[in-house]
Design brief:
Elements lengths: L19 H10 L5 H19 L3 H12 L3 E8 L2 E8 L2 H18 L5 H14 L2 H16 L9
Helix pairs in contact: 2-3, 2-5, 3-5, 4-5, 4-6, 5-6
Length: 155
C-alpha cells in the first residue's frame, strides 16, 4: 500500500513583485541549488524585456505564461495490447508547471549570450504567440485533437 501523499509546502512570495508564481518560476529555473543566481537571471530578463519593449516586463511574462499554458494533453494508456494516446484535461497545478518548464527549457535551447538574454527573448516571443514554447503548446493541442477518437477510453 502507498504511503500518504507529501504535503505541498507553501511558497514565499518573491521580493520584487510579491508574487508566489515568480518564486515558483525561479525555483524551476534554479540549477544546483543556486537560487540567488536564478533570481538574478529572472530579474535581469524582466529588466531586459522592459527596456526592449517599453512595457512592464512582469506583465509580459504573465502574458507569456498564459499563452504557453496547455488546456489538454495526451496520456498513454495500454488497452488490450495496444497503446493509445488519450486526450485528457490538464490539472490546474500541472498547467502552470508545464508552461513554466516549457518556457525555461526552450529558452535554454535558444542561442544567446547569457541565460537572461535567452529567457527574455523566449518570454517576448511567447507573449506574441511565437517561439518554441508556444509551438510546444500548439503541438500538444494538435496531438490531442488528432486522438480525439480515443477520448472514450478516459483515464
Amino acid at each position: 500500500m502507498r504511503k500518504a501523499q507529501a504535503k505541498k509546502l507553501p511558497l514565499a512570495p518573491d521580493g520584487r513583485f510579491n508574487d508566489k508564481q515568480v518564486t515558483r518560476f525561479i525555483n524551476n529555473l534554479m540549477w544546483d541549488g543556486k537560487k540567488s543566481t536564478a533570481i538574478n537571471i529572472f530579474y535581469d530578463a524582466i529588466d531586459k524585456i522592459t527596456k526592449t519593449t517599453g512595457e512592464d516586463g512582469y506583465e509580459i511574462w504573465k502574458r507569456a505564461l498564459v499563452n504557453v499554458t496547455p488546456a489538454v494533453e495526451v496520456r498513454s494508456r495500454r488497452i488490450g495490447g495496444a497503446t493509445f494516446q488519450i486526450p485528457a484535461e490538464v490539472r490546474a497545478d500541472r498547467k502552470i508547471s508545464l508552461s513554466m518548464k516549457w518556457l525555461i527549457r526552450y529558452s535554454r535551447e535558444r542561442n544567446g549570450r547569457t541565460m537572461a538574454d535567452k529567457l527574455s527573448s523566449e518570454i517576448m516571443s511567447a507573449a506574441k504567440g511565437e517561439g518554441a514554447a508556444y509551438k510546444k503548446k500548439e503541438d500538444t493541442h494538435r496531438m490531442a485533437e488528432a486522438n480525439k477518437a480515443f477520448s472514450h477510453f478516459k483515464i
